[in-house]
Each structure stands twice: as C-alpha cells, then as structure tokens.
C-alpha cells in the first residue's frame, strides 16, 4: 500500500500521528463552575477531554467527538474504578470536584467535617492513586489539584474547608517530589473567591440545612459573611476563565510554579504571604 499511493500513505500516517499526540485530560466535577469551564477550554485547545460528573445527565458541555462524559463520584471507590476502566490512557488528571463550608467549629457537625474531607481531600488522594499506575507505565503525566486561595490567608468560619484544602497543598508538594523521578508532575491551582459558580449557593444551602450559625456566633458570622460579599462586590474576584487558563498552563508548561494562584484576588493574596 505504501508503493501504491504515497499521498494516501501520507494522510494515514499524519492521522495516526495526530491521534498519538492528542493529549487526554480527565477532569472531576464538570457539571458547573471551574470544572465545566476547564473542560470547554481544553476542548478548544484540541485536547481529548473526559469530563466527569456525579450525574452525567446534568452535562451542559456542547457535544464534540473529542469529549467523553462519564459518571464519577470521587467519594465512591467503585465509581472511580469504573471511570478509570472506561478512560484509557490519561495524560492529565484535574482534581477539581469540591464542596464548600463556612461555620464556626462549634457549628460544624463532625459528619459534615467528614463529608468535606471525603470530597476535597480523600477524593483527591483516591483519584491520584487511581491514575498513577497508568501514568507510571507511560513514564509521563500531570496531576493538577484545585486548592483554594483561603490557604494563603486565615479567615473566620473557614477552618474546616481551609484545612481540607491545606491538606491538598501539603500532600501535593510531597507527592511532586516522589513522582518527579517517574516523569509525573504535580501542581496545585489556587482559585480566589468566585461568586459566579454554584459553590457559594451549594455551601449556603448546606449551612441552612445544618441549622445556620450557632447563636453565640451569629452576629460575628453575619459580619464575616458580609465582609466576604463586600470583597466580591468590590471586584476582587476570580472568573471561571482564570481558573481554566491556570489549569491549562499547569498542564502544558513545565516551568509552571508548584502553587499557581488563579484570579485577581488570589494573585494579590499570594503576593502578601
Ligand atoms: N468558587 C469559589 O469561590 C472557589 C474558590 C476557591 C476554590 N474553589 C474550589 O474549586 C473547585 C470547583 O469549585 P466551583 O467554584 O467550580 O464550584 P461548583 O460550581 O459548586 O462545582 C463543584 C463541582 O464539584 C462536584 N462535586 C461535588 N462533590 C462531588 C463528588 N463527591 N464527586 C464528584 N464531583 C463532586 C459538583 O458536582 P454536583 O453538580 O454533582 O454537585 C460540581 O460539579 C472546588 O474544589 C472548590 O473547592 C472554589
């Protein structure tokens, strides 16, 4: 066939080459917010995207032959095993799925503490453990964990959420050292406050369902929440696009710093530590 048609052979080789070089990213939590924006951004850059959602029927990403939508709950080991089996080779994992919480320590049931850590921290570890055998076999890979700018600065009522994200920073920094010799990079992208995503609404609903702030903290909590809203209203916020671009940089730029702030407010905070 080589001898019969040089042009045809050239076309086939070039197609195979483009398939071979097309990178695959697996992103968690793509129903809304940063996850959905990041999936759309990677698709626009020509990547193959595995967009995962707890409920795939909630997908609002436009259809694309490079897009695969799969169900994934990062707190469920069977769900993780299924997604890894269905994904094939993964070049980049983006651990984006996360839940918020704001309340005093006294106003936070231990069950809620466990839920926050199950998703924001243990879910990240479980996903890393799931993709690492494949990345080791490839001798290459990038893991990007979505942290939070709250780890740059302590704020009242965020103790549990901030601790769940500080743990992600700490484990990522250590993992980066042990994985680098295997050709695998680990980075953390730290978004600032993003009122445009569902994050705040979901957290507020959880707080209300849990009975709100304890009476002893009510006045203080109201003021602290008002301060957060004031900061957002004054324009110092993070847009979904900021986070998508930062994650893409972490995936594609070997010189990307270990901890990369995303959004005007996050960048400002990172310069003050
Ligand atoms: N927005 C902010 O101000 C802000 C600031 C700093 C950092 N972050 C971090 O950025 C990440 C994305 O937040 P966002 O602002 O885009 O919030 P979002 O709009 O609420 O999106 C969160 C995503 O995580 C998914 N998720 C929650 N629990 C999950 C689980 N157990 N398994 C799989 N997916 C799960 C949600 O899916 P469902 O639709 O199924 O609930 C949703 O797709 C989070 O890690 C968050 O902590 C957010």
Shape: globular
Note the main sheet: 7 strands, parallel
What is the second-level CATH architecture? 3-Layer(aba) Sandwich
Question: How many structural domains are formed by the residues?
Answer: 1
What would you report as the Rg, rounded to the nearest angstrom?
Answer: 20 Å
Stretches where pLDDT is under 50 for at least 5 consecutive residues are 1-18
- Summarize model confidence as the mean pLDDT: 92
Assess the beta-strand content as a share of residues: 5-15%
Major sheet strand order: 3-2-1-4-5-6-7
CATH class: Alpha Beta
- The rounded distance between the terminal residues' Cα atoms is 63 Å
For this structure, the CATH topology is: Rossmann fold
What ligands are attached or bound here?
NADP nicotinamide-adenine-dinucleotide phosphate
CATH H-tier superfamily: NAD(P)-binding Rossmann-like Domain
* Total strands: 7
The helix/strand order is HEHEEHEHEHEHHHEH
What structural class results from the helix and strand content?
alpha/beta
Q: Give the count of helical stretches.
A: 9
Helix content: 40-55%
What does this structure look like?
By secondary structure, this protein is an alpha/beta fold. It has one domain: Rossmann fold, CATH 3.40.50.720. The chain has nine helices and seven strands. The termini are far apart. 38% of the residues are buried. NADP nicotinamide-adenine-dinucleotide phosphate (NAP) binds next to helix 2, helix 4 and helix 6.
């Amino acid at each position: 066939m080589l001898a019969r048609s040089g042009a045809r052979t050239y076309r086939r080789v070039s197609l195979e080459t483009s398939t071979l070089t097309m990178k695959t990213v697996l992103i968690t939590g793509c129903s809304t917010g940063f996850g959905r924006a990041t999936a759309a951004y990677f698709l626009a850059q020509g990547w193959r995207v595995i967009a995962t959602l707890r409920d795939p029927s909630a997908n609002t990403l436009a259809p694309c032959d490079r897009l695969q939508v799969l169900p994934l709950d990062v707190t469920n080991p069977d769900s993780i095993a299924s997604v890894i089996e269905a994904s094939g080779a993964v070049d980049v994992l983006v651990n984006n799925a996360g839940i918020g919480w704001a309340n005093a320590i006294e106003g936070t049931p231990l069950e809620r503490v466990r839920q926050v850590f199950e998703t924001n921290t243990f879910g990240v570890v479980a996903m890393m453990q799931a993709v690492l055998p494949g990345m080791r076999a490839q001798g290459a890979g990038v893991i990007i964990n979505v942290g939070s700018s709250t780890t740059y600065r302590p704020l009242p009522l965020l103790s549990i959420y901030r601790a769940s994200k500080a743990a992600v920073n700490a484990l990522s920094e250590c993992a980066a050292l042990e994985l680098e010799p295997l050709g695998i990079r680990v980075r953390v992208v730290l978004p600032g406050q993003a009122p445009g995503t569902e994050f705040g609404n979901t957290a507020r609903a959880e707080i209300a369902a849990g009975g709100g702030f304890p009476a002893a903290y009510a006045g203080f909590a109201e003021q602290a929440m008002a301060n957060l809203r004031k900061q957002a209203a004054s324009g110092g916020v993070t847009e979904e696009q900021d986070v998508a671009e930062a994650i893409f940089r972490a995936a594609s730029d070997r010189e990307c710093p270990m901890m990369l702030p995303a959004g005007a407010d996050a960048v400002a905070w990172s310069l003050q530590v």
